[in-house]
Amino acid sequence: MPHPLTPEIAARFAAVTLGHVTREYPNKPDHVLAGPEDARTPSFLHPVFYGSYDWHSCVHGYWLLAHVLRRFPDGTQAQAIRALFDRQLVPEKIARECAYLAAPTARGFKRPYGWAWLLKLADALAHLPDARWSRALAPLAGIIAQRFRDFLPIAPYPVRVGTHFNTAFGLRMAADYAEGAGDAALTALLIATAETWYRDDVDCPAWGEPGGDDFQSSALIEAECMRRLLQRERFLLWFDRFLPHLALRRPATLFAPARATDRSDGKIAHLDGLNLSRAWCFRALARGLPPEDPRRAVMLDAAESHLDVSLPHLTTDYMGEHWLSSFAVLAMEA
């Protein structure tokens, strides 16, 4: 059955997220120490994005809250979300987040996954009526956008894994920011990079999916990246070659939901995320096809089967609770 984002579900997701974006511990910092003076607590290093177990999960927790506030401005959690943003998305705290990134040891910090989500958050905030939060985040978003501009021209190869380092995910999410900001140069760079990295990929076997700690489908996120960035006719030609047997539910591995056997194990909990992110990609890709295309029904059915498996387990353990709702919203809103 379909899984829409209802006001009740959005309120539940927002309540869960409000409970962890300011929860400092447990915490897994991605932090390089250049000396003993760099041994600091998460909230000292990151006065805004110190919660949710790690920086990138906290960033996309904020994105979820911004998205829910936009969709349901009078929702049950709207007042609490606004209060959080008023406390946290302020110039002085964002300036300290920017200062962290200025250190030489932070050049590759959260590349590209955290970069992608930060720009996605910036885009979401830009669509809210209250512009204060968007203005406050703008310097940090500017730094991250520049990091994409600096990095992509020197990156000769894509990264195709099903985890944080996947480059197709980074391009896909950055595209929303670039378009929303009217940044034609960044958009052109994203398109050119996607073409260079992925245009010659054909008959993807998806033989490595799922890996034991995947939370993204390397095949489907690449396809979703190309759908988002290419002109429709160009994308359809590419997609026909990339996954030529989708109407026959092949590669079969893409259509079998992953099985998470121990949701208290952070890596195994990733597999619930894989199901949710596959559902997002299946739905978005189906939307990009002509109405009469037989692949549409196949992919929409696959999306629902993946959601059925993992939606009941978003809060089974904190290893999933601190991030899975964001991917559930991506899927539901696709």
Structure in words:
It is a single chain. This protein is 59% helix and 0% strand. It is mainly α and 334 residues long. It folds into 2 domains: 1-112 and 132-137, no CATH class; 199-334, no CATH class. α3 (55-71) packs parallel to α6 and α10 (218-229) packs antiparallel against α11. The mean pLDDT is 97.
How are the SSEs placed, and which strands pair?
Layout: H1 7-20, H2 42-45, H3 55-71, H4 78-88, H5 91-102, H6 113-126, H7 132-151, H8 167-180, H9 184-198, H10 218-229, H11 232-242, H12 266-287, H13 294-310, H14 318-321, H15 324-333
Shape: globular
Instruction: Give the N-terminus to C-terminus distance in angstroms.
Output: 15 Å
Sequence of secondary-structure elements:
HHHHHHHHHHHHHHH
Average pLDDT confidence is: 97
Number of strands: 0
How many discrete structural domains? 2
Biggest sheet overview: none
Total number of helical segments? Answer: 15
Please state roughly what percent of the residues sit in beta strands, choosing from under 5%, 5-15%, 15-25%, 25-35%, 35-45% or over 45%: under 5%
Instruction: Extract low-pLDDT stretches.
Output: none
**How would you classify the helix and strand content by structural class?**
mainly alpha
State Rg. 19 Å
Helix content: 55-70%
